[in-house]
Amino acid sequence: MTLTGARERRVRTGGVELCVAELGDPEQPTVVLVHGYPDSKEVWSEVAGRLAGRFHVVSYDVRGHGRSTAPEPLRGGFTLEKLTDDFLAVVDTVSPDRPVHLVGHDWGSVQSWEFVTVKRTEGRIASFTSMSGPSLDHFGHWIKQRVSRPTPRRVGQLLGQGAKSWYVYLLHTPVLPELAWRGPLGRRWPGILRRMEKVPGDDYPTPSLPADAAHGAWLYRDNIRSRLRHPRADARAHAPVQLITPVEDVFLSPRLYDDLERWAPGAIRRTLPAGHWIPRTRPDQLADWITEFVTSVEDERPVPVASGRHADRFGGQLVLVTGAGSGIGRAAACAFGEAGARVVAVDRDTESAVRTAELARLSGARRAWAETADVSDERSMEKLAERVGEAYGVVDVLVNNAGIGLSGSFFATTTDDWREVLDVNLWGVIHGCRLFGRLMAERGQGGHIVNIASAAAYQPSKALPAYSTSKAAVLMLSECLRAELAGQGIGVSAVCPGFVHTNITSTARFVGVDAAEEQRRRGRATRWYGLRGYPPEKVAAAILRAVVRDQAVVHITPEARGARLLSRFAPGALRAIARLDPPL
Ligand code: NAP
């Protein structure tokens, strides 16, 4: 998607001519997208295309950028006051009778903070979505507070942000930045963005980049020093604010927004595990959040924000859980739902997947869908990956949970039994990692894979040769994949529960015995697991924690942790236990 299909017009203001692009129906609420540095309005192409179905979307090249003309002289031509004049000239043209919804990224956000906190724009802005660009006034107060009342933590914060701001000092040097941008840096920038920020596509940045970057250096020179030294005391927002913070932003510390409540009471906060250039790397997510925020403000109803544990980490994320129709999978789908994720509940049984999707919605999921697939069937999983990719996007968190139980001695276990267990418990995980993990890696924006193994992965038992082998393989696969994906920001966790009270005991097969004995063993196992009483919800909570903390292996339940300790420090004892007849 590009802005090529947009209607363009020129707006004259303060000695410059701005190039303004419009998409969508002008009768709908107007969303104004303001780009950052070094950028042009095309940074918004992907987001604008997604918003245009519902809104009147407007984006303009900031003075001196893209196809807008530059002020003469450059010095003093980029002050926040002049940028506010430009903004008002644009909105007076595109939406003279109705306040607009403002969205800014990077310097687009820095200047939008000015627009939304000065008197003369009151009544012209309906809402503001800020990403990766703080108010210079708020930043100035943030620095002053830390300098005047230093504590080790505050000094650490100052130094941390100071280190991230290295480029700001460079941009204050005369001439050099212009020479660099019009020379080698300008030529290399598209490659740098692709490599460092994983920005996809060849249509961005536009050829105007070297000139944009050279002119835009004045954004810094005209404003930073003066505002940071003398920040305005009354820089409070006069419209509702939504703050989107990409937590892997190499230029800005999330700590900068610690005092946000003071300047924008009731601001909605979202975080995204992504780098700085989110308009190009996470357009789906941004379009979704902007739509939700703008629609809520227009309809005068509260923004639906999840308040569950880890909501700041998983809000809006796409989470896919296999085997979600029951037990641990269902509990995990609901826990991610409670944290505000968008949940895809997959099971081979459609009805139970649909029920889980309903429960996830009731728990707080922003959206939840049911999908039917057999994880052991490669074709079925390929079709699932295609459907999910087209309908919902790239999965942020994948939970390979589907599994079946099988108990019986090695010689009682037929080759078909082996195949069945390995097909579901191991191949199911392989298919999931291969298909969804590859899409995650190609997107280049990180993600997380959770594979549900078991304490049986390291606790041998003469009664569970096939099941334990499948789970040991899942554990090793997870470790290998974790090593392989580490450089791509994708975490892999293996979760190893002990005895958890779910349906697995009533569906597990007991081989080598007749049907009546199998039924009896199922009944005993179910009673025993029931007495043990460890709920799947606790496993679900551990799964979310594993993602938040990026844990390699998680042992859940005391018996799983005990077995792990024995396997490391007294493997002989564990081998002796393996020879005992199971109590079932
Ligand atoms: P559960 O209640 O039986 O849930 C497993 C779900 O996976 C069921 O809805 C099941 O559907 C589904 N499933 C099975 N095969 C599938 C396939 N080929 N494709 C798609 N879905 C499939 O069991 P659970 O205890 O929650 O088990 C979840 C995971 O935890 C498993 O990997 C299990 O090995 C592991 N685990 C469980 C325990 C425990 O004590 N419960 C301990 C350690 C590890 P059907 O009902 O139609 O079969």
UniProtKB/TrEMBL annotation:
Alphabetized SUPFAM superfamilies for the sequence: alpha/beta-Hydrolases, NAD(P)-binding Rossmann-fold domains
Tree of life domain: Bacteria
Recorded family membership: Belongs to the short-chain dehydrogenases/reductases (SDR) family.
For the keyword Oxidoreductase, the answer is: yes
The record's keywords, sorted A to Z, are: Oxidoreductase
Q: Which residues form a coiled coil?
A: none
Entry's NCBIfam families?
PRK05855.1
Question: Which interval of the chain is the signal sequence?
Answer: none
Please report the stretch or stretches of sequence annotated as the AB hydrolase-1 domain.
Answer: 29-278
- Organism of origin is Streptomyces nodosus
Q: Name one GO molecular function term.
A: oxidoreductase activity
UniProt name for this protein: SDR family oxidoreductase
